[in-house]
Design goal:
The structure holds two protein chains of two kinds.
Chain A lengths: L2 H12 L3 E7 L5 E6 L8 H18 L5 E5 H15 L3 E4 L12 E2 L7 E9 L3 H12 L3 E10 L4 H7 L3 E7 H10 L2
Parallel strand pairs in A: 3-4, 3-6, 6-7, 7-8
Antiparallel strand pairs in A: 1-2, 4-5
Helix pairs in contact in A: 1-6, 2-3
Chain B lengths: L13 H23 L3 E7 L5 E6 L8 H19 L5 E4 L4 H12 L3 E4 L12 E2 L7 E9 L3 H12 L3 E10 L4 H7 L3 E7 H10 L5 H16 L1
Parallel strand pairs in B: 3-4, 3-6, 6-7, 7-8
Antiparallel strand pairs in B: 1-2, 4-5
The chains are: A alpha/beta, B alpha/beta.
């Protein structure tokens, strides 16, 4: 694990964002761990550090792109922070949830043919990212890369690769937990 | 012997006057940004409340222009500094459109961000507020526009139910349709970077809006005021 990943792991652990217990996830799956990064923007210094790392990954490792597309309200703070850091346009695509109306699936705009990078806080099975990718593609943008803070290694990478999308993450859940075992 | 100290600017109203002048400059700048974004539309629109309006504020293009978003966030922060005070505050974003703005404000002022969920979370833990909120925290609500204040009131209720104290709300534009009064009744002071009537005046004087269209909007605002 790089120094940066170790630092991120310690922020997420220290802020109590990796919870142990029995939790219901999407689609009726349950898990021993629950990853909830929604409180991250409540800690301005940590939020700045994490979104700077995301901005670095995006500016150095995914090639040129036109727009960041955040998935749902949960990804909106991350997306806006990185958009401001890189001075890149963004949009937010609504999450596929029964309670959402699809009158307008998008906050912001997408332009035909532009290269959009999907952005979310956590990748689990990849179903949410895959739905978002199909919406963004249906609206005319190109999608070949998704970036998340934490990859839970529950199949998102594989599912997305069948759609021609490469998943990049700052850190995986196993790296975070591995770090937890090593620290006292 | 020490000379008597001068009265503080606030005591002779100078500070207030300077801010009022500065705010009118902000209004003018905002009008320019909004015209650039094609955000001010005049015609016949149906608002989400069902009410018909002769104008519509469409901020859909704002996410495509990070520099405009940054400048608008600075404007919110100036309002916060001068009308609320920045000490010991958390900012709460109102989804969907208010959340990106609240994020930009929280980054600019380095204030903690929380947000109100549109629906309670069904998986994981059930709650209406996302983010770190403790009993007694002072929270200022951030949204893009206010019409009658309904969504701000709903958000205030959710924050208060979780123990937060809500006394102020800041928006970019007050549509002047009773929002300020409705919020005041719930103990919340509304602050706006600008009001639709001010934006109209700027547009009209800059030749960007024919006076018959401006008059149509003014008649609408008077009608709303009476209802």
């Amino acid at each position: 694990m790089t120094g940066e990943a170790a630092r991120l792991a310690s922020i997420l652990r220290n802020r109590g964002m990796i919870k142990r217990g029995s939790y219901m996830l999407h689609l009726g799956n349950s898990s021993e761990y629950y990853v909830d990064l929604r409180a991250l923007p409540s800690y301005p210094d940590d939020f700045d550090e994490v979104t700077s790392a995301l901005a670095r990954l995006l500016s150095e490792e995914v090639g040129g792109f036109d727009r960041l597309v955040g998935i749902g309200d949960g990804a909106a703070p991350l997306t806006v922070a990185v958009s401001l850091k890189l001075q890149k346009p963004y949009a937010i695509v609504k999450k596929m949830e029964a309670e959402n109306s699809f009158r307008d699936p998008l906050l912001g705009e997408l332009r035909a043919g532009e290269r959009a990078i999907l952005l979310d806080d956590v990748a689990s099975t990849g179903v949410t990212l895959a739905c978002a990718a199909s919406i963004v593609r249906a609206l005319g943008a190109r999608v070949d890369t998704a970036v998340v803070l934490v990859d839970r290694d529950l199949g998102a990478r594989e599912l997305l690769s069948t759609l021609g999308i490469r998943l990049r993450s700052l850190i995986s859940l196993s790296e975070i937990l591995g770090g937890a075992q090593r620290s006292p | 012997m020490r000379p008597p100290s001068l009265p503080l600017p606030g005591m002779c109203g100078l500070e207030t006057k300077l801010w009022a002048e500065k705010k009118s400059v902000l209004s003018k700048e905002l009008a320019t940004i909004l015209v650039g974004l094609g955000a001010l539309k005049f015609g016949d629109f149906v608002l989400s409340s069902g009410r018909r309006s002769p104008y519509y504020i469409d901020l859909r293009l704002l996410p495509s222009y990070p520099s405009a978003l940054e400048r608008i966030a600075e404007m919110y922060v100036e309002v916060l500094e001068n009308e609320v005070g920045l000490g010991n505050l958390k900012v709460a974003g109102i989804p969907t459109a208010g959340l990106p703005l609240a994020t930009a404000v929280s980054l600019r002022a380095r204030l903690p961000l929380i947000y109100v969920r549109e629906t309670p979370k069904l998986h994981g833990e059930m709650k209406m507020i996302e983010g770190a909120l403790s009993r007694g925290d002072t929270v200022v609500l951030i949204d893009d526009l206010v019409t009658t204040g309904g969504s701000l009131l709903k958000a205030a209720e959710a924050v208060r139910a979780s123990g937060g104290r809500v006394e102020h709300a800041v928006v970019l534009i007050d549509r002047e349709e009773g929002g300020s009064e409705n919020l005041a009744r719930a103990g919340i002071r509304l602050h706006a970077v600008s009001k639709i009537s001010e934006l109209l005046s700027w547009l009209e004087s800059a030749g960007g809006l024919p006076s018959d269209k401006a008059e149509l909007v003014r008649a609408y605002l008077r009608g709303v005021g009476r209802s």
